[in-house]
Structures are given as structure tokens and as C-alpha cells.
Automatic annotation (TrEMBL):
Cellular component, GO annotation: cytoplasm
Key word Iron-sulfur present: no
InterPro entries found in the cross-reference section: ADH-like_C (IPR013149), ADH-like_N (IPR013154), ADH_Zn_CS (IPR002328), ER (IPR020843), GroES-like_sf (IPR011032), NAD(P)-bd_dom_sf (IPR036291)
Enzyme Commission number(s) from the entry: 1.1.1.1
Sequence ranges assigned to domain Enoyl reductase (ER) in this UniProt record: 10-315
Keywords: Metal-binding, Oxidoreductase, Zinc
Recorded family membership: Belongs to the zinc-containing alcohol dehydrogenase family.
Protein name: alcohol dehydrogenase
Gene Ontology MF annotations: alcohol dehydrogenase (NAD+) activity; zinc ion binding
Enzyme class of the recorded protein, top EC level: oxidoreductase
Cofactor(s) listed in the protein's UniProt record: Zn(2+)
Taxonomy of the source species: Bacteria, Bacillati, Bacillota, Clostridia, Eubacteriales
Organism of derivation: Sulfobacillus acidophilus
Length: 317
């Protein structure tokens, strides 16, 4: 089979011919139809996980069909549509500690894999397996209620999904971006308002809208995030779903005076993924993607890092 591997920390993603893996006890083999390229894949390329071993096949936004069953598997049938996300087991991560979906075939835990609507366009929907569930979970566990102002910082791979999810959840959805040309796009995705960060008036604009109950940061811009805290309502919260090394700054007095909270969010509960997929199916959440063949995985990865992709890059074996 064709597989894209990282052979050492910092090495380029390269295409190889490998044997098709055989499923072990409790595993299924998946014929990969699509795999999203996520910023989390940088951890595989850079060797940022303590249990990384090389060579490694990255990729954790996978949709395909069940190709073979390992021993003891009775919850899947060959030919069923299947999805695999970040979680590969209680201690394993898809594409980091076990091989992922940058390949024609992969193995997955039969209990961690999720059923996928057979009517879905696999190429388009693959990003829901990480980007979708991440933004859905962050908003679902926030303090926002229908009618509240919810601001989405960034209109990229995560942000364009967060805007759709927020709007479908009944929030007064506000999109924030440095790119004024994205205003029409934000409205098309469902945003009720657009704030141009380049004008330097974002905090006042949020206050004019009634202030934000929640600001969801989908772009790692610590200085902008710090400024936007001033646009939070009383009891408001800033939630970030992206990493970064720069600090977010807020005074204790500001947090105390308006009872603000600042927190990060990641998905830990395996029940979150089926819930996010069900919501997306019912609400009509649709990622916008740019596709690449496996042979262009390194190009797709670096274009993703440089924010030079139409929202989400997806590899199609």
C-alpha cells in the first residue's frame, strides 16, 4: 500500500510502499477514503509526543470503509462506513502513538472507531473528526445559551466550522478576522455580524453588540486574544482550542470585577465524537476543503501550516 511517513523528528513527509497491515484482536482494518490534514499532525512531524516512535504515519481525521475484522470484533461489518479521530484508545493517539490515515489502509480500535453516515461525501466531511468535534465540544460545554453573543476569533480551518456550529446552536454569532474580505464569507457561513480586527475597535464593537458571553479563539494570536477579553460580558469566558507559546495576559482585577474565566479546551470524552457527528448531520454543518493526493502530503501539510489552504486540507488516497 501507499503510505506517507515521518521517518525522524523534523523530517519531510515522504511516500513509501508498505505491506497492508493485518488487524489484531479488537481491531478493524480501514480502507481510507479521506484524511484531513490538521495542525495537530505537527506533533508527529516535530516529535512532540513523549511516546513517538519512527517511522510514523500521521493523520487523525479519517473516513473510510471497514475492510477486515480482527479477532473478537462483533460491532462492525465489512463494508460499513467508519471514522477515526484523535483518540485511538485510553492512552493512544491516532497518528502519534499508532499509525494514522495518511495511507491507503490503517488499523483502528473497533471500540474507538465511529459509524459515519453512508450518504456523506467523505472527502468533505473528514475534518469533522477533529476540527468539528473540537469546536462543537468547546461550545457545547461553554456557558453560552441561545441568544447569547458568541464571538469566533479566526475564520480558518477551525473557525469556519465554529461559526456554523454557533449559528446552528442559536447563538448570536460574531466572526472576527484581520481580513476584511472575509466579511461576506462569514455571513455566508452563518455569522450575524463581522468585526474587522484591523480597525482596532473590536472591543468596542463587541460592547456595542451587548458584549460576548463567550469568545472562542480558533487562531493562536495571544496578543489579540488578550485584547478581546475586554469585550467579554459579566460572567463571560474566553475559550481557546489552539496552542501557542505566547502568554495570554489579563489582570486579576479585571477577572475578579467581571467574574471572567479564561480556559483551554480539548476533547477527552469518547462520547463527544458521536455527539458532534450527529449534531453536524442534523444541523447541516459542512466543512470547506481543498483536496490533495497522497503524493502531495508534504505540500498540503506545509500549506496548512502557512494558512494557505481553503479552510481544511484533505488527503485522498
Amino acid at each position: 500500500m501507499k503510505a506517507v511517513e515521518v521517518t525522524a523528528p523534523g523530517a519531510a513527509l515522504t511516500l513509501h510502499e508498505r505491506d497492508v497491515p493485518e488487524p489484531g484482536v479488537g481491531q478493524i482494518r480501514i480502507r481510507v477514503q479521506a484524511c484531513g490534514v490538521c495542525h495537530g499532525d505537527l506533533m508527529a512531524v516535530a516529535g512532540q509526543h513523549p511516546r513517538m516512535q519512527y517511522p510514523r504515519i500521521p493523520g487523525h481525521e479519517v473516513i473510510g470503509t471497514v475492510d477486515a475484522l480482527g479477532g473478537g470484533v462483533d460491532n462492525w461489518q465489512v463494508g460499513e462506513r467508519v471514522g477515526v479521530g484523535w483518540r485511538a484508545g485510553p492512552r493512544d493517539v491516532t497518528g502519534l502513538t499508532v499509525n494514522g490515515g495518511y495511507a491507503e489502509y490503517m488499523l483502528a480500535s473497533a471500540t474507538e472507531a465511529v459509524h459515519i453516515n453512508p450518504c456523506w461525501d467523505t472527502t468533505v466531511m473528514a475534518p469533522l473528526l477533529c476540527a468539528g468535534v473540537t469546536t462543537f465540544s468547546a461550545l457545547a460545554h461553554s456557558s453560552a445559551r441561545p441568544g447569547d453573543v458568541v464571538a469566533i476569533l479566526g475564520i480558518g480551518g477551525l473557525g469556519h466550522l465554529a461559526i456554523q456550529i454557533a449559528q446552528k446552536s442559536g447563538y448570536h454569532t460574531v466572526a472576527l478576522s484581520h481580513s476584511p474580505h472575509k466579511a461576506d464569507l462569514a455571513k455566508a457561513l452563518g455569522a450575524h455580524a463581522f468585526i474587522d480586527l484591523s480597525l482596532g475597535t473590536a472591543v468596542q464593537s463587541l460592547r456595542d453588540l451587548g458584549s460576548a458571553r463567550v469568545i472562542l479563539a480558533t487562531a493562536p494570536q495571544a496578543n489579540i486574544i488578550s485584547q478581546l477579553i475586554g469585550g467579554l460580558a459579566h460572567n463571560g469566558e474566553l475559550i481557546t482550542v489552539v496552542g501557542g507559546s505566547e502568554p495570554i495576559t489579563v489582570s486579576p482585577g479585571e477577572m475578579l470585577g467581571r467574574r471572567l474565566s479564561v480556559r483551554g479546551w480539548r476533547v477527552d470524552d469518547p462520547r463527544e465524537l458521536p455527539a458532534a457527528l450527529s449534531f453536524s448531520d442534523l444541523a447541516g454543518i459542512v466543512p470547506r476543503v481543498e483536496t490533495f493526493p497522497l503524493e502531495e502530503a508534504d505540500l498540503a501539510f506545509h500549506r496548512m501550516l502557512n494558512a494557505d489552504v481553503l479552510f481544511r486540507a484533505v488527503l485522498v488516497p
